[in-house]
Design brief:
It contains eight helices and no strands. By secondary structure, the chain is mostly helical.
């Protein structure tokens, strides 16, 4: 059985940035860092901080686990399947930053969750007809 070649955080970040048609400057703006920092991440000269990884994962709609693993087969696919359902919600880096930094109360987070449920249901109805 052939193993997938080793993938680095930098190669995965570069792949996702290109797939999303984003510049390093745009990624830097979302992550709250200088564009040179994004370049260092992509060349594996520097590794993103834990907070930056969360924002990057949200921006690209992937899990932090996927960004950090060297081989695809190392990923727990059950975790990936569960996080895939969250992708529409976690694709908003600003929301993740507020949740992780504690600037939103538990009550506000619950209200956001309810509102997201409302929006999903509304969109589902619109698609039906």
């Amino acid at each position: 059985m052939m193993t997938e070649p080793v993938r680095t955080v930098g190669s995965r970040l570069t792949e996702m940035r290109i797939r999303r048609d984003l510049s390093q400057e745009q990624v830097a703006r979302e992550a709250g860092v200088h564009p040179v920092t994004v370049s260092k991440w992509e060349t594996d000269t520097q590794c993103p901080s834990g907070n930056a990884l969360v924002v990057l994962a949200a921006l690209f709609g992937v899990s932090t686990d996927w960004l950090l693993r060297e081989h695809e087969e190392d990923i727990d696919h059950n975790v990936r399947d569960r996080t895939a359902a969250l992708t529409p919600v976690i694709s908003y880096p600003a929301l993740i930053v507020h949740v992780k930094s504690g600037t939103l109360s538990d009550e506000a987070i619950e209200e956001l969750d309810e509102y997201i449920g409302f929006l999903r249901e509304r969109d589902r109805r619109r698609r039906k007809g």
